[in-house]
């Protein structure tokens, strides 16, 4: 199974990858750490599953880079972009948000 994991926090990435690998040995995980790298990966390759963090930096962070503007709902923007394409991959949103949606349309989970 080919999976794209979109998560900017290393500790969380490691935990999710460990869980996926413990479930199946037939898992290949690509990692994206920002909005831009997620969009590039998701639109240039085919994945069986995308596990997506909701809040992401715009760009990958580096030793001397802060990742640009932080996107509180960057994951939602990625989903919108993917829905415009021909293929609609299965997406699981992994977030610590307690509500999801625009003001007035929020659903509490």
The unreliable regions are: none
State the order of secondary-structure elements, H for helix, E for strand.
EHEHEEEHEEE
Summarize model confidence as the mean pLDDT: 87
The total count of strands amounts to 8
**For the terminal residues, how far apart are their CA atoms?**
28 Å
- The CATH homologous superfamily is called Response regulator
Helix share bin: 25-40%
Give the CATH class. Alpha Beta
Proportion of beta-strand residues: 15-25%
Explain what the structure shows.
The chain has helices at residues 10-23, 35-44, 74-83; strands spanning 2-6, 28-32, 49-53, 56-57, 70-71, 91-94, 99-100, 107-108. It is α/β, with parallel strands linked by helices and 109 residues long. The chain has a single domain, classed as Rossmann fold, CATH 3.40.50.2300.
């Amino acid at each position: 199974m080919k999976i794209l994991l979109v998560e900017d926090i290393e500790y969380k990435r490691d935990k999710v990858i460990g869980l996926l690998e413990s479930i199946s040995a037939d898992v290949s995980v690509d990692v994206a750490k920002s909005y831009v790298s997620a969009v590039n990966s998701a639109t240039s390759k085919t994945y069986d599953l995308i596990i997506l963090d909701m809040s992401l930096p715009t760009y990958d962070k580096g030793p001397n880079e802060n990742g640009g503007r932080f996107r509180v709902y960057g994951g939602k923007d990625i989903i919108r972009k993917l829905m415009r394409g021909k293929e609609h991959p299965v997406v699981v949103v992994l977030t610590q948000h307690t509500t999801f949606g625009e003001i007035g349309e929020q659903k509490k989970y």
